[in-house]
Amino acid sequence: MHLQTAVRAFAATALLAAAAPAALADNTQGITDKTIKIGNLGPFTGEAAVFNPLNYGPEAYLRYVNDKGGVHGRKFETVFADSACNEAKGIAAAKKLIYEDKVFMIMGNPCSGVAMAIKPMLEKEGIPWMGPAANPKLTRPTVPAMFHATYTGIESGQNMAKFALSNPAIKKFALIAHSNDWAKGYCDPAEAYIKANGGEVILSTAMERGSTDATAQVLQIKQSGAQAVMGCLYQHELIILLRDMQKFGANAVVVGALGADFDQTVQQVGNPAAVRERFFQPYQFKAKIGSKSLQDFHDIFVKYLKKEELPKAGPPTNFYYFGVPVGIVTVEGFRRAGPSPTREKWIAAIESIKDLDTGVLADKVSYSKDNHVGVNRMFAVGVDKDGKQTVYTQWGKPLPE
Questions:
Q1: In this structure, are 105 and 182 located in the same domain?
Q2: Rounded to two decimals, what is the model's pTM?
Q3: Total number of domains in the chain
């Protein structure tokens, strides 16, 4: 969906009647005649704050829509809540959003551990959730009010392996992962895809969160003879792995999971030789960040986010773009739900979405009653031999610009 279309679609189209009757209060919690209250839950403090662009991307879009008049005469009101990517803090924050702030839904929440921890509460209360957290168990099996606007670990893990296997010289793989459900959500699908498509997993090893050294794992990788590494790691540990791969002369390429921002990872590794033609990730977007086709989203971020919500230096990076579809799909649900939205109407509206072009994702968004994961198709991103960030449709084949 192009931005001009979005402006027309999301602009105010009708005046509202009176507020919904008290009998429907539970199903219209967070809805007034002029506002829609959204809970934005994310890691705004602590080491995991690196993920908060996934919260600011959709928030920028809500502010953009508000500036164009809102949806059916209502504007979005956001209540931010900090989980610090900690399950106990996340549960407390979600309780406040639901029972004190009385939000209609929770949006964002990129930390899978927190998302899984609050899932029983969301199911019990029927609170809608739209997010980028990667754990496939959030929406598989289908949960009535929970939707993935972006890729789960299954889609990402399969695409990690698919990209590596598109190089006919790569057959032997090593898996390096955290010992948590998030990492298994990536590496298990990657391993299954490898084995089903002629590859061999010859090493599986762990690297725990908070690690400051990857020497042991890198030496295992070298000794194994692996040609590619599936790195199901968060950003901090992935950076350490890439540095140590270079330090010890391990020649296997590394395909990282989406627990890391590609641009930030390359910058923080701080050594072009460690990433050039050696580090790749699944790529979520239809075009290269910085290209003309994504310029409108860059402009939205810069215009509608506060200085402290943007990167300290440089333009908005990968996670801002990866978060924005959460806002786009959420707003589309309210547009389709009509001038008197309820939870049931919003859920039905989301399930009616077919082939929605967000203007940013590599795939079009489609849902149904039995499928609450909107997208599947991905590309890959890496740094080519000349040091240029490049998007690939498969190994060695850049996406036409």
A1: no
A2: 0.86
A3: 2
